[in-house]
Specification:
43% of the residues lie in helices and 11% in strands. It has 206 residues and is α/β, with parallel strands linked by helices. The longest helix is centred in the N-terminal third of the chain and has 17 residues, at 40-56. It is globular, with a radius of gyration of 20 Å.
């Protein structure tokens, strides 16, 4: 079953015929998921997220949604893992969170550790700029540092594809995304989905 091509959308109705191979046929899985969401820590976070969605739907910016989520959960100090290429944006994020919402942000940049790429088996030809010294990103290091800081919520800002996954995997706290990196589209990856006809060359050509 591929939900993206489903015309039934049984999951959005109180009753109806559930298509064959629909994820909703897996009743035990759904019960397990619901039970997990009802666990105390998850339930509190999940409800706060639903409240933010309802109160700011279509009106609040992403950064305000994050701030309002923090307020509902009583968070006054959070973490930020960001890409060196978005350092200016990270500075603005931290400034807004502090000045407008009273939330302190502990930030850590992707190059923390100053470890050269060769240490991780990355060859010179695989660098962004072959023939130069390049420090590797360290998303695990970012996560572990914020774990040590005991931040209850971490924000991901512009981490590389794959690095963002590692950051989330090794973060003890919940992770929300402020923005993702897309250097070709001004950090707006949705642009391709809205203009596939015009951006098709970006999908395959070098």
């Amino acid at each position: 079953m591929h939900c993206d091509s489903c015309a039934n959308e049984r999951c959005k109705k109180t009753e109806g015929i559930t298509p064959k191979n629909c994820p909703m046929q897996h009743e035990e899985l759904i019960k397990k998921a619901n039970d997990i969401l009802l666990q105390e820590e998850n339930a509190k976070f999940f409800r706060a997220a639903a409240q933010v969605e309802a109160e700011g739907y279509g009106r609040w910016s992403r950064i305000r949604e994050i701030a309002e989520l923090c307020k509902k959960l009583g968070y006054t100090r959070i973490g930020l893992g960001f890409c060196t290429g978005l350092k200016k944006e990270a500075q603005v994020f931290c400034k807004i969170m502090k000045e407008y919402y009273g939330i302190e942000v502990v930030s850590v940049m992707c190059k923390m550790g100053a470890t050269q790429k060769e240490a991780f088996g990355i060859s010179d030809s695989e660098k962004v700029r072959p023939g130069t010294v390049e420090m590797s990103c360290n998303p695990v290091g970012q996560a572990l540092y914020l774990n040590k800081q005991k931040t209850p919520l971490n924000v991901s800002l512009g981490l590389c594809v794959g690095h963002d996954a590692l950051f989330s995997k090794y973060s003890d706290a919940f992770v929300v995304v402020m923005a993702v990196k897309d250097r070709a589209l001004a950090h707006n990856p949705m642009g391709v989905l809205y203009t596939e006809r015009y951006c098709s060359r970006m999908l395959l050509e070098d």
